[in-house]
Specification:
Elements (H helix, E strand, L loop, with lengths): L1 E5 L5 H8 L2 H4 L5 H9 L9 E7 L2 E10 L10 H4 L2 E8 L9 H14 L6 E4 L6 H9 L3 E3 L4 E5 L9
Length: 163
Amino acid sequence: MIVLRQMKTDDLPLFKSWLHTPHVAKWYHDPQDWIDEAEKQDSDFRWLHHFMVEHEGRPVGFCQYYACEDSDELWEGYTALGGSYSIDYMIGETDCLRRGFGKEIVMALTEKIMNHDDAKRIVVQPEPENKASCGLLLSCGFIFDTETGVYIKQVPHDLVTQP
């Protein structure tokens, strides 16, 4: 079982090291952009919700979510619809790969997004070559929109819990 906790300044050295590990660097291009966002999470990037993923008290990964309308991404028209959120996730520790943590992270992020009154959908667009991430999203109930190349999961309003 994993726990998502708010990312702190003390987490930055570990986060930076993960961005340079081969299995993460393959998909997280431009690590300095990710570092800048994390370093400015209390100012310029406060619209991003940054989390460290812990397993048995040990940091094993990172994830975040955000309202698409707060970003400069159009998300193939989904931003304009309103109520769209997106997520990013990674397992940083190599010994924690292929242990089911990715699915737990996506489900935990989905629960957090469901607590937002305006949430209607979650949209994600991993690189098509990232078969592990694409399969993970499908296993978490996302549907692949072949016209846009975006994975979408509708937020079930009858299950939404209030913060």
